[in-house]
């Protein structure tokens, strides 16, 4: 449980390592906006230091960071209500990341499935940063004493590690300084799957563009990708149990429910019995109506990158009012002479 002395504070981050997908939007950004609008203190971050754990072309990294900021703002995050930052402008993330590299154990890191997936057979030749990544992620969260972290399902193990790091630090130094953060993994679309293969996560790194919907896709492209999405020959069921062995059908229903702010039960009550020939055009229409205003606004914001840079610079100033004292106190607890 989160210790009671910590006031609720939300932190989450997304890598600027390529375009945003519908998975990022439904699994993360949509929840970011809801938590902001519920009046919680919210901090959202473009994690550029995480992105460079694999090679990033410098011009692309800068562009992707600004485009991600534009995606945040176009989706409803506002600098008036949330602190919006890119990680490298708030140096305390990396500084606490080092401390946590000294707290986390090799054995904990070796269990991280995301590292195993990303490194694959190439484990000797990936960067040290990729291996240490989850310690920096724990620092992103705990440098704010954040209590709640909205993410998609794939980040669950990293958040468990964050709790382990906080617990070990508190225990080793005999303090109750870092909160035990709660993951917030909620909604119908915490794991959006590929449109081509219902057993694989929708991802910006999938070589097939048809496997994902990008937030910058135009209406025709979105409709075409949904029309071509892999399905099975049966009609949609009326009950959730009927989706059990039908990963592609379940994925499209989950996407529909999340876009329409419904539960899966409510969606099936509406569309149960329909063939995909009827359901897919409905889903395409819904997706276009929700995503087109966002991509239009992103394009408008991207026309003024200097304004985005000002927002991020201001966010960094606000963030450092929180992070500098937390780092100073961490060093003091550890015995670093100040
Ligand atoms: P990243 O950049 O891979 O993804 C950003 C967010 O989008 C969610 N997501 C999905 N949700 C549902 N279905 C999908 N197919 C899908 N694909 C991505 C992710 O779960 C995530 O919430 N390690 C993080 C970034 C990070 C972070 C943090 C997050 C760094 N520091 C601190 C939270 C707190 C990552 O690589 O996310």
Q: Would you kindly provide a written description of the structure presented here, covering whatever features stand out?
A:
The chain is mainly alpha-helical and 338 residues long. It is 53% helix and 7% strand. It has 13 helices and 5 strands. The chain has helices spanning 22-37, 48-51, 58-74, 92-101, 106-110, 113-119, 128-142, 156-173, 219-228, 247-259, 264-271, 276-302, 305-334, and strands at 9-14, 41-46, 82-86, 148-150, 182-184. A 3-stranded parallel sheet has the order 1-2-3. Strands 4-5 form a two-stranded parallel ribbon. β4, α8 and β5 (182-184) form a beta-alpha-beta unit. α4 (92-101) crosses α13 and α10 crosses α11 (264-271). It is globular. The relative contact order is 0.15. Tryptophanyl-5'AMP binds next to β1, α1 and α7.
Biggest sheet features: 3 strands, parallel
Low-confidence stretches: none
- Give the overall shape: globular
Q: Can you write the helix and strand succession as a string?
A: EHEHHEHHHHEHEHHHHH
How many individual helices?
13
Could you give the distance between the termini?
32 Å
Q: What's the rounded overall pLDDT mean?
A: 96
Structural class: mainly alpha
Q: Which molecules are bound in this entry?
A: tryptophanyl-5'AMP
User: How large is the share of residues in beta strands?
Assistant: 5-15%
Counting DSSP E segments of at least 2 residues, the number of strands comes to 5
Portion of residues within helices:
40-55%
Rg over CA atoms: 21 Å
Q: Strand order, biggest sheet?
A: 1-2-3
């Amino acid at each position: 449980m989160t210790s009671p002395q910590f006031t609720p504070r939300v932190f989450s981050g997304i890598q600027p390592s390529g375009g945003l997908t519908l998975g990022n939007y439904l699994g993360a950004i949509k929840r970011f906006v809801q938590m902001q609008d519920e009046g919680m203190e919210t901090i959202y971050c473009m994690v550029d230091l995480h992105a460079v754990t694999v090679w990033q072309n410098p011009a692309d990294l800068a562009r992707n960071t600004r485009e991600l900021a534009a995606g945040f703002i176009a989706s409803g995050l506002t600098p008036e209500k949330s602190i919006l930052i890119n990680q490298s402008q708030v140096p305390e993330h990396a500084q606490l990341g080092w401390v946590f590299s000294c707290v986390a154990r090799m054995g904990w890191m070796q269990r991280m499935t995301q590292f195993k997936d990303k490194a694959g057979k190439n484990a000797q030749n990936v960067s040290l940063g990729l291996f240490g990544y989850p310690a920096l992620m724990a620092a992103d969260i705990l440098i704010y004493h954040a209590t709640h972290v909205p993410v998609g399902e794939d980040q669950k193990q990293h958040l468990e590690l964050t709790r382990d790091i906080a617990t070990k630090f508190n225990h080793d130094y005999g303090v109750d300084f870092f909160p035990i953060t709660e993951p917030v993994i909620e909604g119908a679309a915490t794991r959006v799957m590929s449109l081509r293969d219902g057993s694989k996560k929708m991802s910006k790194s999938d070589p097939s563009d048809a496997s994902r919907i990008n937030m910058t896709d135009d209406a025709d492209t979105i409709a075409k990708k949904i029309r071509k999405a892999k399905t099975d020959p049966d009609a949609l069921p009326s009950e959730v149990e009927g989706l059990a062995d039908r990963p592609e059908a379940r994925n499209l229903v989950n996407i529909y429910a999340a876009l329409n702010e419904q539960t899966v039960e409510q969606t099936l009550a509406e569309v149960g019995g329909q063939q995909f020939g009827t359901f897919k055009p409905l889903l395409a229409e819904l997706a276009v109506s929700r995503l087109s205003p966002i991509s239009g606004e992103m394009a408008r914001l991207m026309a003024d990158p200097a304004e985005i840079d000002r927002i991020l610079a201001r966010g960094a100033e606000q963030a450092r009012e929180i992070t500098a004292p937390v780092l100073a106190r961490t060093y003091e607890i550890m015995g670093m002479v100040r």
